[in-house]
Fold this sequence. Notes:
The protein is an alpha/beta fold. The protein has 2 domains: 3-232, Rossmann fold, CATH 3.40.50; 248-513, TIM Barrel. It has 16 helices and 20 strands. The strands form 5 sheets. A 7-stranded mixed sheet has the order 2-1-3-4-9-8-7. Strands 12, 13, 14, 19 and 20 form a 5-stranded parallel sheet that branches. Strands 15-16-18-17 form a 4-stranded mixed sheet, with helices on one face. It is elongated, with a radius of gyration of 25 Å. The chain starts with a strand and ends with a helix. The structure holds zinc ion. Zinc ion is lined by residues 255, 257, 318, 363-364. Zinc ion binds next to loops.
Amino acid sequence: MNAAAILKSHCSDNEHFTNMWIKAFDFWNIQYGKLVVDDLNIDDLRSFEVLLITGMEHISDSAYRLLDRYILRGGKILISGDLPNGFSKYFNGMMVKKIQRSNVHRCIRIKNKDGFQQWDDGEILFFTGTFNSHGLDYITDDTVITDADIPAVSEEMTMSAGNPGLWRDWKESPSLSVIIKRHGEGKILYTPFALGAMTEMYQPHTADSIDYLYAKQNHGLYLFIRSLLMSLTENYKYREPWQDGTQCVVSITGDVHDYTGIAGREDREWNDMRYNFDLLKEYGLEGKASYYVCGEVARKHPDVIREGLKRGFELCPHTFQETQYAIEKWDYNRQREDIIRCINAFENAAPGYDDYKKGFRTHGYQSNQITRDVLLDLGYEYIADMQAWETTGMYNPDFPEKLINFAAYPQFISEEGNRGLLEIPDTYANDHFAYRVMKMSPAQALEFWKKQFDKAYHLGGLFQACLHPYISLKEDPEREKTYRGLIEYILSHSGVSFMTMREISEWWKKRDSCNK
Ligand SMILES: [Zn+2]
């Protein structure tokens, strides 16, 4: 038995609330069914280990009696969002105060069946306090949540021009957000968060942010759902994000340019990359990094391309010559010609490899849908342009230490599913951001990345921050200590696997196709 049932009703349409749960069930490969609560009989319930109630305003008396029997015999119910009418009457005074509107900040932009919607009615919020360092917190039995201060990702976060990701009046809530109540042999788990409507997050628009069109699936919500289910059942088998017991995947990437005509940066990054190869080898990480290299570099320095590929590193194109396709509004044919020109340069440098035909990152992350169409048409497997971290605010020094509200895994972005293009996100802030935008010292940057790694490690996430050989190693000699310090810190953890982006792409395809 490995199944959840989503309850529905003739009286109210809760599809809106269940869509994200279904995505999460698919992600974890959990079998689920749908039951119409008005037509239930006890035999329908027997084969389900957990019943999900979300977005249901009303349950009939006869259905309540049935649910009562189901729980008394060891069934489990998971409620997300408002309690349906009459719930407390049947389940022995389970009382949860509705969260007051005045305590609620406006919420993130979310996308639902009606398109964008701004939730500001105090009903549905982002979760917090759930992924602290001890995992999911919950309180048991008869506890009443009063006036919970639930920090949401606010309007300020999405709109603030000066401080991307920063929002005012943030307060970490002392109130926990999940309650478990025992009833007979069974359990009821309640969370005031109606998670279902929140599926995606959008990059905040700020004065200096790139106009990046792609939604990020918030896998943090999926992780939260898994935590809820784990609290209720020991029998579920989850399709884990990573293989062979890996807790956290680290992918080192770096972009390499030619910068003809720019004094001091001209004709050097290829050599910085080679230096980086040797540095990684010192840590036993020969071949365990992915570089996105402009076609011009491959044309001018075929030997370093050959060497890198021969040593097992992944080398892929990064436009031919520092082109920002989206900003410069390149059309399909122009982008296609540029990418083919890159492939040819790599092929001339190192015939017989195919890395450079599988993965791509656009300079400045300036790709658009056309880029994705071209890549798919040319047989590419993944694009590495999504800066998922920009959405989260967690790179901000004022971001509360314990709060993790966002996690991103790779995601297939086209209708072709796992035969289409995979988007592999940068999940943490890159060195350009740390050193040039935030002007961190090398010591500050090390602390910053260590904390970010801690979060990825705790969640079982992906740690992928673009660290350019030039910026992280050569622009300021002090930074090499940070680079080494970060690698040493990561290596001191068990269960970490270093993978190239191509390896991640191959794994994700396999993961997506198994057990379906
Ligand atoms: Zn670049």
